[in-house]
Amino acid sequence: MYNLIEKRYWFFGLSLLIIIPGLIAMGISLAKFGAPWRLSIDFTGGAIMELRFEQKVVPGEIYNIFLNSGYGDTTVQTTLDEKTVLIRSKPLDEKAKAELQAKLREKFGPFEELRYESVGPAVGKEVTRAATIAVIAASFVILGFIVFAFRKVPNAFRYGVCAIIAMIHDVLVATGLFSIAGLVLGWEVDALFITALLTVIGFSVQDTIVVFDRIRENTPKRRGEPFEIIVTRSLLETLHRSLVTQLNAIFVLIAVLLFGGATMKQFVAVLLVGLISGTYSSICNAVPLLVVWENKEIPKLINRIFKRQPQAA
User: Fold this and answer.
1) Which of 18, 21, 129, 193 has the largest CB neighbor count within 10 A?
2) What are the tens digits of pLDDT across the range 175-211?
3) CATH code matching the domain that covers 46-119, chosen among 3.40.350.10, 3.30.70.3400, 1.10.1040.10, 3.20.20.60
4) Torsion sign, CA atoms 278, 285, 243, 205
5) Which H or E run contains 84?
6) If you compute the radius of gyration of the chain from its CA atoms, what whole number of angstroms results?
7) Sheet of 111-119, strand order
8) What is the rounded distance in angstroms from the CA atom of residue 229 to the CA atom of residue 58?
9) What's the pTM value of the predicted model, to 2 decimals?
């Protein structure tokens, strides 16, 4: 039987290599934008327009029109056909909107307005507050559910904590990569991002609970076996199911990411990254953390790092 758990510190190291650049990007964004990510009008307030032109347009030329009109904070994105444009700017009144659209029509010809939304700063603050409460509440509910469901297993609280740590790992991976994309590609956090993040949390916990449930079943059946062997056996028994289920969803998300519209691209990207991270963390983080905790390896690791030898009795 292949002992996947014995590679646990390699898995932990790989997670750190992925998370640390994201944390650095969040720090840069915090210094540059006042938040860990570039925030869309859903959080800051502003206007969003989606326009479809009859000819291909250049985002930079559209941005220059807004810049010359005093809207320098505007961002412009186009779809693959370069005819549909998503424009985000600070709030526009009806007069300013009409003037800007007239300049766009003069420069690029006729277009169809697919969407126009205006959000005030008060609404943005409410979205921020609601999103924060949702993530925190989800964490506590998940912890409580796992502790209750595994109450007959020794140290049930450990299962809940390890699931939460794996969930935080997935959130950090998704938000970190999104922060990098914000710096490099100009991606902005909006309400759909929060929806995607909560979905990622759900996927992450679902995968983790599947493996934990098999450990719960095998623990009384395999009494006398070392905990690490029981965990490895349980992991291998559920590995095929986890990978097949998640790969089906991953292939669908890749297709949507490649061929979907611009308004869905960031949402799907967060889902895709989170789903891949959730599959990885359930197998390579949550379950190995249980073994580390059971074997009391953290004090041993600290002693090894600081080269502290046990005192003689």
Assistant:
1) 193
2) 999 999 888 887 888 778 888 888 888 777 887 888 8
3) 3.30.70.3400
4) negative
5) strand 84-89
6) 24
7) 75-78, 84-89, 46-53, 111-119
8) 59
9) 0.75
Q: Residue for token digits 């669908």?
A: 252
Query: Length of the chain in residues, anyone?
Result: 313
Bridge pairing between strands 46-53 and 75-78: unpaired
CATH class of the domain defined by 4-35+123-303: mainly alpha
* 268: number of Cβ within 10 Å: 20
Please tell me whether residue 151 adopts helix, strand or coil conformation: coil
Q: How far apart are CA 269 and CA 91, in angstroms?
A: 27
- Distance in angstroms (rounded) separating the CA atoms of residues 298 and 292: 7
Rounded CA-CA distance 269/174 in Å is 9
Alpha helix stretches (DSSP H) within 186-226: 191-221
Give pLDDT tens digits for 107-165.
899 999 988 887 766 656 676 677 778 778 877 887 788 778 777 777 788 888 888 88
CB of 67 within 8 A of CB of 58?
no
